[in-house]
Design brief:
The chain is of the alpha/beta class and 471 residues long. It is built from 18 helices and 21 strands.
Length: 471
């Protein structure tokens, strides 16, 4: 981070990505090499992880910060501080982004994005640091397009993540571009894909060319600082697969959805217009429910998503989870769910459970403290909301997946709330509750494959780093 302008720190949770970054900033400040740092992080770490680390360590508790969020966010931009912290959703406001549609000479309708460059330059940022850089892996999102305009204004660009390619090596392009403006993998996603991947005949999916994996590792290795949990005395991770059988009537619905992408539930029609939608529908059925097609209002418009309805089909996964809870005899269990109807069934089945979504940010900090003391035996959370920035290893060594996810990054991060440094158990158990003969099996298999892909990335980086040092 000190030796070069761009770097990506790959570190497992609890290995000190935050403290390393603050130490580097503190060193550069003392040498009068930099001024202000713009820190982009998920909302919860904005308020908890980063402020707590600054206060915790004597080496850099002299650093000052302001959080550009909430009703007083404008004051953070003019405050005399070392770090301005903002969440990704605040970038449009920070950059004063304007979006408009226009028609090209060939008749295509495209989006034009502009930012208020004069306003941004006046803020005086020297360093860009993005915590959980993988949130910028999609190059065609609004946040990526807006940030792209100002990347060149930073003398240093740092990225932090534990999962850069959890869902495949295509995810590396956007992250590397933010760091080096395309130096390693090219300036355009099309060039990156053409260089390293082969597209299917529809151009929708891509597979690596022979030898491309090694070439990618070699190209990006100079950007990477890798720290793995092999450096720590970590608990052994143990997987436990719990299988359930769907009721016959539910299996009929599942099979019909899988085959025809259409079925009738509770006299309403459920459709899956494409394969991705069908995947979601049958995952829902495996879990125990399904969203119904939206109602059509008298105006002819569809009812908003906030008014969407669902049908609860079975409670087999809740029953299996109850058996697990009883077996654990009060040992704390952290449970992941996915859909709203999953939450609905879980609330009904577990009156004794605590649900993280019922707590705001300030309340959640107190909840985590009670959890780490062992005072809460059963906690439910959505991986999207509590998968980053929470140390929850104090008293827990059991994690359960009521609802399987395709997303390897969310999967890893949720487990890492418990499987991390400071957990004094010799083992951490991950329980997967899965329906036999359903998409759950495919999702579990995909998670294993994605893990091997990311591990290959890490091993490749280490190998090329060793070769470079030997030369």
């Amino acid at each position: 981070m000190l030796a070069q302008g761009s770097s990506l720190t790959l570190a497992e949770p609890s290995l000190g990505k935050t403290s390393c970054t603050l130490a580097a900033l503190s060193f550069l400040k003392k040498k009068s090499k930099v001024g202000k740092m713009l820190l982009i992080a998920p909302l919860r770490p904005c308020y908890t992880v980063w402020p707590n680390e600054i206060k915790k360590w004597q080496d850099f508790n002299h650093l000052t910060y302001a959080i550009a969020h909430g009703k007083d966010k404008a004051a953070a931009l003019t405050a005399d501080v070392d770090i301005v912290i903002i969440n990704p959703e605040g970038l449009d406001w920070l950059l004063d982004v304007k979006r408009e549609k226009y028609t090209t000479r060939t008749g295509k309708v495209k989006n034009r994005v502009t930012v208020n460059m004069k306003r941004f330059l006046a803020m005086g940022f020297d360093i860009l640091c993005i915590d959980e850089l993988s949130k910028f892996k999609h190059y065609n999102t609004g946040r990526f397009e807006a940030l792209k305009f100002v990347l060149h204004t930073f003398g240093r660009r740092w990225g932090l993540t534990g999962s850069p390619a959890a869902n495949g090596l295509l995810d590396l392009f956007g992250q590397c571009y933010i760091l080096d403006l395309g130096n390693a993998l090219g300036a355009y996603i099309t060039h990156y894909r053409d260089t390293y991947f082969v597209a299917d005949k529809y151009g929708h999916s891509f597979t690596l060319m022979p030898g491309a994996e090694e070439r990618i590792y070699e190209a990006i290795e100079p950007l990477m600082l890798r720290m793995g949990n092999e450096l720590l005395d970590m608990p052994r991770l143990v997987e436990n697969n719990i299988w359930i059988d769907l009721p016959e009537d539910v299996m009929e619905i599942y099979s019909q959805l899988e085959k025809d992408f259409i079925t009738a539930v509770d006299s309403r029609i459920v459709t899956a217009v494409n394969a991705a939608s069908a995947s979601s529908k049958i995952r829902q059925v495996a879990n125990g429910g399904i969203y119904l097609d939206p109602k059509v209002l008298p105006s002819g418009l569809q009812a908003p998503k906030s008014e969407r309805e669902w049908s609860n089909l079975h409670s087999k996964k809740c029953e299996a989870l109850r058996d697990l809870v009883d077996e654990l005899q009060g040992s704390p269990l952290l449970v992941a769910y996915d859909f709203e109807h999953d939450l609905d069934r879980l609330r009904g089945a577990f009156k004794d459970g605590v649900f993280a979504c019922d707590y705001n940010m300030k309340q959640f900090d107190k909840l985590v403290a009670k959890w780490n003391q062992g005072d809460i035996p059963l906690l439910f959370g959505h991986p999207q909301s509590i998968g980053h920035g929470n140390n929850m290893q104090g008293a827990c060594h059991h994690v359960a997946w009521h609802s399987m996810t395709w997303n390897r990054e969310l999967y890893d991060q949720f487990i890492a709330r418990v499987w991390r440094q400071g957990n004094d158990s010799d083992r951490v158990f991950v329980h997967h509750i899965m329906a036999k003969g359903t998409i759950d099996e495919a999702v579990y298999g995909a998670l294993q494959f994605k893990h091997s892909t990311e591990q290959a990335l890490f091993e490749g980086i280490k190998r090329y780093a060793a070769e470079r040092r030997s030369k």
